[in-house]
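Fold description:
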Amino acid sequence: MNRITLRVAGYLHALATTLALCAAVSPAPTFAQVAVGQGAPHIAAAADLQFALPEIVAAFARSGGTQLKLSFGSSGNFARQIVQGAPFELFLAADERYVAQVIAAQRADGIGTHYATGRLALFLPQGSPISAGRDLADFAAAVNDGRLKRLALANPEHAPYGRAAREVLEQRGLWLAVQDKLALGDNAAQAAQFAASGAAQAGLIPLSLARAPEMARRGAYVTLPENWHTPLRQTLVLVKGAGPTARAFAEFLRGPQAREILARNGFGLPAP
C-alpha cells in the first residue's frame, strides 16, 4: 500500500508559537524534560487546537494566570505517552476515547470533561482541480477520473480527525478507491500543512485549521455534515499530580472567554 507519511514541522506550528504570547510551544517531550507540578505546567493538546489554544492561553494570562507550556500532536500518541508516565499535567484530547484510556490506566485525576465538538472540512489548496462541494460530488468524481493524485489526512490509527476522515470516505464509498492516494500526517496539523502546500489536491482536516486566516489564504474549504462520522467529542482531563495552575486553566477552558474563542475557531460547544 503506497502511503506517504508526513513528518514535517510545518508553518502552523511556527504560527502557533508566535500567537501563544505567554506559552512556550514545543514538540512532544521526552519524559524527563518537565517534572509534573514544577515550573510551567505542561499541557498535551490535540493538533486541531493549534490556533485556538494559544489565544485561550493569552486570555488566561490576561485574567491573572501564569505561564503554560504547550505541546501539540495526535491524541492517540499523547494518550500512550501519558499512560507510560509522560510529565503532562493536563490532556486536551480531540476525542473522548483517548481520555478514557488515560482514566483506565489510573493516570487521570478525576473524570473527563467535554469541552468542545470538532468538525471536519474538505480543504482544497489554490490550483486544485477539484471543486468545493459539501456533498463531495466533484471530489468523488476526481477520485475516479484521476484528478485526485494525493489526499491529505491525519493517520487514522492514532489521530481522531483521521479516523473521522476515514469514516466519511467509507460512508461515501470512497475509502478503497483512495488507498493508493493517501498522504498521512502524524497529526491533523501536519495533514493540514501538507494540503496547504499544494502537494495534495485535497485534504480532510479539522474545520478549526481550515478556517484559520493563514490557511484560508492558501485555499478554500467546505464544512462536512457532522452526521457523516462519529462525533468528535473533544475531552479534557487532569493528569495525576497536576498543580494549581493546570487546574485553574482547566476551569478557565470551561468559562465564557475560552468558549467564545473555541466557537470563533469553528468548534461546537457543549451546554455550559
Observations:
- Residues 160-171 form the longest helix (12 residues).
- The mean pLDDT is 87.
